[in-house]
Amino acid sequence: MSALKTWFDGRSLREKRLLLVMAALMVVTILWAGIVRPVDDGLASARERHSAAVVRLGETQARVEALTAIRRPPPLTGSLADTVRAAADEAGFALQSLNEDGPGRVRAQIQSARAAALIPWLNRLERGGILVEQATLTDNGDRTVGVTLVLRSRAA
C-alpha cells in the first residue's frame, strides 16, 4: 500500500485529479453494472411474472365459476316426473310411459325418437340436474330408436 501511496504522491496535481475522477467513475460504473442493472432486471422480470400470474389467476377463477355453475343446476321446480314430461314435450318427444321408480327416480319410455335429437335432449336434462342412470336404445329399423330411460334427480 505504501508503494501505491508513493507512486500517487509522485504525480502532479492535475494527474492526481484525473486519477481520482477515474477512480470515482470506475466505482460508479461497477455499482451500476454490478448492482443497479441486475436489480432492475430482476424487478422487471418479477413484474412480468406477476402480471402473468394475475392473468392466470383471473382465467382460473373464471373456470372455477363456470364449473361451479355447471355442478349446481337450479333446483327442480316441480316433481321429477313433471319436469321430465315438460322437457320431453318441449323437445318434441312423445312419452309412451312415465312411471315413478322410487324417490327421485322415474322410468320413461319413448317409442320412437331420432338419435340426433335424443342425445342433445339428454345433455340438457343433465345440465338441468336430471341424471341418466340407465338408457336402453333399440333400433326401430326406420332411422329411429326406441328408448327406455331411468332418470334420477341429482339431489336424490
TrEMBL record:
Any one of the GO BP annotations: protein secretion by the type II secretion system
Main location: membrane
Keywords: Cell inner membrane, Cell membrane, Membrane, Protein transport, Transmembrane, Transmembrane helix, Transport
Gene3D superfamilies hit by this protein: General secretion pathway protein M, EpsM
Entry keyword annotation includes Nucleotidyltransferase: no
Cellular-component GO terms for this entry: plasma membrane; type II protein secretion system complex
Highest taxon above the source species: Bacteria
Topology within the bilayer: Single-pass membrane protein
Pfam families: T2SSM
Compartments reported by the entry: Cell inner membrane
Protein's UniProt keywords contain Metal-binding: no
Family recorded in the similarity comment: Belongs to the GSP M family.
Protein's name in the database: General secretion pathway protein M
Organism: Sphingomonas carotinifaciens
